[in-house]
Automatic annotation (TrEMBL):
Family, similarity comment: Belongs to the DapA family.
Protein's UniProt keywords contain Lyase: yes
Classification via SUPFAM superfamilies: Aldolase (SSF51569)
InterPro entries associated with the record: Aldolase_TIM, DapA-like
Enzyme class: lyase
Species assigned in the record: Fontibacillus solani
Gene Ontology molecular function: 4-hydroxy-tetrahydrodipicolinate synthase activity
Name of the featured protein: 4-hydroxy-tetrahydrodipicolinate synthase
Keywords from the UniProt entry: Lyase
EC number of this enzyme: 4.3.3.7
Family annotation (PANTHER family): 4-HYDROXY-2-OXOGLUTARATE ALDOLASE, MITOCHONDRIAL, DIHYDRODIPICOLINATE SYNTHASE
Amino acid sequence: MSKSMMDKVLSIRQKISGGMIPAVPVPRYSDGSIHHDAQLAYADYLSKMQISGVAVWSHTGRGLYLNATERQEVLMSWRSALGQDRVIVAGAGARFTGSLPFAEQLKQWKREAFRMAEHAVELGGDALLVFPPVIYKELPHNERDRSIVEYHRELSRLGIPLILFYLYEQGGGMDYSDEVLHQLLSLPSTAGIKMATLDRVMTLQHVSSLVAREYPDRLLISGEDRMFGYSLMRGATSTLMGLGAAYPNIQGDLINSYQEKKYELFMELSSRIDGYAEVTFTEPMDQYILRMLWSLVCAGVIPREAANDIVGYVLSEDEIDQLYSTIHKCRLY
């Protein structure tokens, strides 16, 4: 590993460790276009919070749906608000539709995934959050595993640290075998791994034990919106999750309370955050993005007209009322 890459990886680990990286949604008008004023207001709002940076172009930000112009606007608005000292993690991947013959689809998918990753580098992103390459699930087992590893290895040649992404299958992810995990965690460009298994506690336990035992210098990053407190107990030292998109400070205090062994406070904050997660990260699960946008409306950050998801979901007034009630009940901040 070159000294330059080593320095970048160490810098990312130092900046993220012990901190929060909210995965940020994109405020939009009902026609799907970005609400520019709301985007700027949102970036300004989070810049005043106790966060280590943000994750753009992620699942929460519908990253795989963004065109190049939208990607640039989103990333640059956050860089302007956060400055150079805080981290911008950019998602990298491509959608797999299955509409073309597989060989042709694979070429197109890889081309688009690398274009997105290269765009992040060009715009000054600090690290890549690598969407699971689910297209490889179509391949035989051995070929699939080799392809997953080679894909990450090729991304590492772009000269930017990688954050691995273990995402549960129903959320658009895939399982990684132990051999794949070993090879990915061994890549010099790997800064850490984000775990987002939702309710698969045994998977979280297994991977967290593996990281602690064999890769203690790699960050275990929690994306466990429904197991936040427990993921810290399993060794996560930082978070990268959509749950932090609107009220990150209480979540930052949860991390600090655990690290400082203030367990009574930890239990109280964990209970309040869990109460919020139970309303926002619930079925239909994919609507959590819209619930985060409406949380920002409740916080007075964006207007109601900006609480729209590009895929077209709509919350009922009863659902919005329940969300508002939960936010106040859980005393989020």
